[in-house]
Design goal:
The complex is a heterodimer. By secondary structure, chain A is α/β, with parallel strands linked by helices. Chain A has helices spanning about 1-10, 45-50, 55-65, 80-85, 115-125, 165-185, 190-195, 275-280, 290-305, 320-335, 350-360, 375-380, 385-400, 415-435, 470-485, 500-510, 515-525, 535-545, 550-555, 575-585, and strands spanning about 35-40, 70-75, 105-110, 140-145, 160-165, 200, 205-210, 215-220, 230, 260-265, 265, 285, 305-310, 340, 365-370, 405-410, 450-455, 490-495, 570. In chain A, α3 (about 55-65) packs across α6, α6 (about 165-185) packs antiparallel against α7 (about 190-195) and α13 (about 385-400) runs parallel beside α14. The termini of chain A are far apart. The two termini of chain B are about 20 Å apart. In chain B, β6 (about 135-140) and β7 (about 145-150) form a beta hairpin. Chain B has two domains: about 5-105, Alpha-Beta Plaits (2-Layer Sandwich); about 110-210, 2-Layer Sandwich (Alpha-Beta Plaits), CATH 3.30.70.260. Chain B has helices at about 25-35, 80-90, 125-130, 185-195, and strands at about 5-15, 55, 65-75, 95-100, 110-120, 135-140, 145-150, 155-165, 165-175, 200-210. Chain B has four helices and ten strands; from the N terminus they run βαββαββαββββαβ. The chains are: A alpha/beta, B alpha+beta. The structure holds iron/sulfur cluster (SF4). Iron/sulfur cluster binds near residues 595, 599 and 614 of chain A.
Chain lengths: ~625, ~220
């Protein structure tokens, strides 16, 4: 049996409890009593994937239907993968411990571009042909969802279906359709043709791309009758009635985020122009305080977790955040559970809110001004002023904090050296502020500020989708300039490898021609690219070169407003004309009010349930 | 004994998928199970309070057992049978409470443990191995060079039988905070002796005190 083969090698690998399932909350069903089996694959390790909320939601959702069985699958750590390959063990589901190649669906969540080689690696490890065209049978159907499917074209060759937008309803519809089609003995083509009629379902094989001589996209057109010209994402209108798990799989081993997580809202009112999540998850919708409280209690009770965290793009934008926090602080205190709030924003970081968190947990303080000057913050529409940062820091220093972390982006559109100097200025001012507070009133010891600089990566479905990424040389010059501006050891600056950002940028705005690059890079040994110790930029760039494809064409080229993009046939509701308008405003350093202040008519319809959508 | 502290000694089994839970992870797993079960765990006093749960004798990864001991303290005097029932409703597959009692002996009273080892080996090979004058194993010392020590005097073979090509070895080894010999050490030494690699199934069957009596 398969399980025996697995158990034979488990004792010889690191932390084997990650590869055998059996955790509290994992769902084991009788395979003879279910009609659709789904392998939910996270293309990264167990420790990373098990921390991911979307997976927990969809895992619980699918298993809540008696007839469906969803299992978890992760990219094994290299030591285990090697042993699996040596022993001929195919990638298996953690619940049944059976190979996923025999399942009905193999579904990936695409959270970041640097996991793409893991997708191919996992399909290969599963013994499933990589290319959709080489999988002729009805099963397994290989699908993907998650934020990266807003431009899935670099992976189009490998997938049968991409699921656009929020998955709670469309996943069940798709499985239901599959079940009916399987029962009546339909083939893959017939199933896909019917699936393509479901809103949110994109079948890449039903669309053909043409390219212009300059390498840009000419068109993307359906090659079958009855499939839509544009595929629209799915939105859940009402977060209070949609499925939310009342239990999680509780891992044995330590994972990145090992705690109960309650989603409080979806979407974001802000419209920061660099932020893809801020646009693709529109509109802003929230759960009621009662629902959040119920979710929190249910989860804490059934998991036994000693920590609960609230999840959202910006928790403080909840219309009743103070009431919410007050209630949750009371509950968690009584139950000896700690409450963590990862996404509170600086601009409404009130003393009241700060006091509430500090009764629960006091860790470092982080701000994300993203840009060094007010001018550039206006360009990116990041509504944070230096005064606000200083005010929050003052409250925090007086509350005992001594370390501050600042997140910036480097290489933003219109950025000059003056903006780089602005980063250093902000850090110096924070240091001065600390020492301006009398000793007995501030936290003990010395103060430290760390500046973390990410290279700006232009993403599809943002007002910056037209913008070039800064070149390697520009980035290096700016980094050096920043270092030269730092006058004290109390400030530390760090940044990511430019290679990572360039690859991410090329893949993010890439098209179908990149499929060959990803495949070849993987065949040459690239995988786990998001891990510094495994990332092999040399192989990537050599592969691009060998295939005569220029990553900078995708990453560092200024694009016209009239250019056809590889993702134009995908409808995330926010219109391209809105992005063009926003892009122009950015270049004039003019801001746009957030949804709460004033609806800007981005294209999202009122029917989608957005709290502030004007119904235009 | 502090006020509002009620000690329980819990005997549990660890088998199936649960044998791969490491010692450290087992601690967290049990803590959460107490919380799920609604059992009020007693927290240690002092600077860094933590839930009082402890395992007097660690079990190596991959070994199954029906005799594992966990000590835990509660803030309420919940009857032993009730504790067993409540915990069992909250444990993941492969972990099962067998009984709960009030602790009698100190942790230091643990001196020996018995194991059953199932190996794909021949009886005569093992007999030859075990009847040698010395059975030496390499032991890393604190100064990090290896030292040879003879474990022969510490091994008590209680039974040996061969069925269906598998060798069943029943053995008693030193355990506890003094000398502790893991059955894997014995298997490794045997493997070195014959030059073969074995896949062994090991289970712990008893935990004993210095008089050879059941630890309780
Ligand atoms: S329609 Fe208006 S309120 Fe709704 S998301 Fe777009 S800009 Fe915001």
């Amino acid at each position: 049996m398969y399980r025996e083969k697995i158990e034979k090698i488990l004792p010889s690998v690191q932390k084997p409890a990650r590869y055998i399932g059996g955790e509290h909350g994992s769902v084991v069903k009788d395979k003879n009593k279910v009609s659709v089996r789904f392998a939910f694959c996270f293309p990264d390790t167990y420790d990373v994937g098990m921390s991911h909320l979307g997976m927990k939601i969809l895992y619980g959702l699918k298993n809540s239907v008696d007839d469906y069985w969803c299992e978890r699958v992760f990219q094994p750590e290299p030591d285990y993968e090697q042993k699996m390959r040596e022993e001929g063990i195919l990638l298996y589901g953690l619940e049944s411990l059976e190979p996923i190649k025999d399942f009905d669906f193999i579904g990936f969540t695409l959270q970041y571009e640097l996991s793409y080689t893991n997708v191919l690696n996992m399909l290969d490890l599963a013994g499933v042909p990589l290319h959709a065209r080489d999988r002729k049978d009805l099963s397994p159907i290989v699908v993907a969802g998650g934020p990266c499917v807003c431009n899935p074209e670099p992976l189009a060759d490998f997938f049968d279906i991409f699921i656009l937008g929020e998955g709670e309803k469309v996943n069940l519809e798709l499985m239901e359709l599959y079940k009916t089609m399987k029962e009546k003995g339909a083939g893959k083509e017939e199933f896909l043709l019917n699936a393509a009629k479901i809103e949110g379902v994109y079948v890449p094989g039903f669309y053909d791309f043409e390219y212009n001589c300059d390498g840009t996209v000419k068109s993307c057109t359906p090659n079958r009758n009855g499939v839509p010209e544009r595929v629209r994402k799915r939105v859940i209108e009402d977060l209070d009635s949609v499925y939310y798990p009342d239990d999680f799989v509780v891992p044995f081993t330590k994972i990145v985020h090992d705690r109960a997580v309650v989603e409080v809202l979806r979407g974001c009112i802000r419209g920061c122009r660099f932020c893809q999540a801020g646009f693709i998850y529109r509109p802003f919708r929230e759960k009621s305080v009662d629902t959040i409280k119920r979710n929190t209690k249910d989860l804490c009770k059934s998991t036994g977790y000693e920590e609960v965290s609230l999840s959202s793009l910006s928790t403080s934008d909840h219309t009743r955040v103070n009431e919410l926090l007050a209630e949750l602080v009371d509950y968690t205190k009584d139950e000896q559970i700690s409450l963590s709030l990862p996404s509170l924003r600086v601009d409404n970081f009130s003393e009241e809110v700060l006091n509430k968190i500090s009764t629960v947990r006091k860790s470092g303080l982080t701000f994300a001004p993203e840009a060094g000057t007010q001018r550039l913050r206006n360009v990116i529409n990041k509504n944070v002023s230096e005064e606000e940062i200083m005010r929050s820091c003052k409250i925090a220093f007086e509350g005992g904090y001594t370390s501050v972390k600042l997140y910036f982006m480097l290489g933003l559109p219109t950025e000059t050296m003056e903006d780089i100097e602005g980063m250093a200025d902000t850090a110096h001012k924070i240091i001065d502020l600390f020492y301006s507070i009398p000793k007995e009133k501030r936290g003990k010891g010395s103060v430290s500020v760390s500046i973390s600089c990410a290279t700006f990566v232009p993403k599809p479905f943002t007002p910056f989708e037209f913008e070039p990424q800064a070149t390697r040389q520009e980035v290096t010059e700016k980094q050096e300039h920043l270092i030269s501006c730092l006058k004290t050891r109390k400030i530390k600056a760090s940044w990511h490898d430019y290679n990572v950002s360039l690859l991410e940028a090329a893949l993010a705005r890439g098209d179908r021609r990149l499929g060959a690059v990803i495949e070849k890079a993987w065949r040459r040994g690239c995988k786990m690219d998001s891990w510094d110790e495994y990332f092999k930029p040399d192989i990537w760039w050599k592969t691009f070169e060998d295939l005569n494809i220029d990553p900078e064409f995708y990453a560092c080229r200024k694009r016209d407003y009239s250019e056809v993009f590889a993702w134009d046939h995908l409808d995330y509701m926010v219109s391209k004309s809105f992005f063009i308008r926003e892009n122009k405003l950015a270049h004039e350093a003019k801001t746009t009010p957030n949804c709460k202040e004033k609806c800007s008519g981005c294209g999202v319809k009122k029917e989608c349930g957005g709290v502030y959508c004007g119904g235009k | 004994m502090e006020e509002n502290r009620f000690d329980r000694r819990i005997t549990f089994s660890k088998s199936g998928r649960a044998v791969y839970i490491s010692h450290l992870d087992l601690m967290r797993t049990m803590q959460r199970a107490f919380k799920r079960a609604g059992l009020p765990i007693w927290y240690t006093q002092g600077f860094n309070p933590h839930a009082y749960i402890m395992f007097p004798l660690a079990l190596s990864l991959g070994i199954s057992s029906n005799v594992e001991i966990m000590d835990a303290s509660l803030t309420e005097d919940i009857p032993c049978d009730e504790v067993t029932k409540m915990l069992n409703s909250a444990l993941p597959t492969g972990l099962k409470i067998i009984k709960t009692a009030i602790p009698v002996k100190k942790h230091t009273a643990i001196k020996k443990a018995e194991y059953e080892i199932i190996l794909n080996a021949g009886e005569s090979d093992f007999n030859e191995f075990i009847s040698r004058e010395k059975i030496e194993i390499k032991k890393k010392t604190k100064k990090s060079y290896e030292k040879l020590i003879d474990i022969k005097p510490d091994i008590e073979v209680l039974g040996l039988r061969c069925t269906g090509g598998e060798l069943f070895i029943s053995v008693r080894l030193p355990a506890g905070c003094g000398l502790n010999i893991n059955p894997s050490v014995l298997i490794e030494a045997f493997s070195e002796f014959t030059g073969e690699i074995y896949t062994a199934k090991v289970s712990r069957t008893r935990i004993l005190d210095q008089n050879g009596e059941e630890y309780c």
